[in-house]
Amino acid sequence: MSSASDPLAALGALPGVAESVESVRKAVDRVYGHRVMRRRSGEITSEAALRGARGSAALSGADWALEEVRRRTDFSADAEALTVGAALRLTAEAGQLLSIWRQSPMRVLARLHLVASGTAVAGDVVGRPRLAGEPVDEPLVDLPLPDADEVAGRLDGLARVVIAGGSAPALVTAAVVHGELLALRPFASYNDLVARAAERIVLINSGLDPKAICPAEVGHAEQGAEAYLEAFKGYVSGTAEGMAAWIAHCGRAVELGARESTAVCEALQRGAA
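Above: the chain's sequence. Below: its structure in token form.
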């Protein structure tokens, strides 16, 4: 595929991106090569999903302790509980949508918003991009909101890129999907949670992390909201330097997610978890 028809390919050549891609690959390979993975990979996947959901919720303002997330069954009490519940549902649903993503990414995004909303969001705004004049509840990202026409056009472009595939590394594609959805905020609510769930889908579906044991959400939370938003501003700027910084930030998030699962493997090996 030529660079003209593969718009993400050029991003892989930006300064520092190849190094980020290689560093991520090595981190992922290390955790996949852990001896515990040979016999208990299902447990690692489940734990990574829980920790990923906790991390995504934390970035959205619901920074609960892991054990609190683990023990709770009711996520309807208040705004933070709704956020944690949405993150848990999204993480669980992401694995069910892998086969649909490359054929119909918009269908997947609609489903993700529907799942995130649960019963907390009423009306016909659920599961579809917002229309002109409709408000967006997105406390994390305080940047100008693209209008509905721009959202529709850029979502269509993003869908075409996903369906076409290409030669760009999985990290680059995941970072662009994440950044574009965060920039557009196409839904009435839960856009940042949906964006991180979509990043998760790309990382799994690409084959980089097929068992979903390297939760980038953990790494995004560990780096902190301030660093997350600063890197995201680089994406929004559209400059080569800014895009490279955002991709590197997402790469570091995957590496930290891999480190988290390595720690879980070590704990299981010791019989401590």
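Residues 9-270 form a domain with the Fic-like fold fold (CATH 1.10.3290.10).
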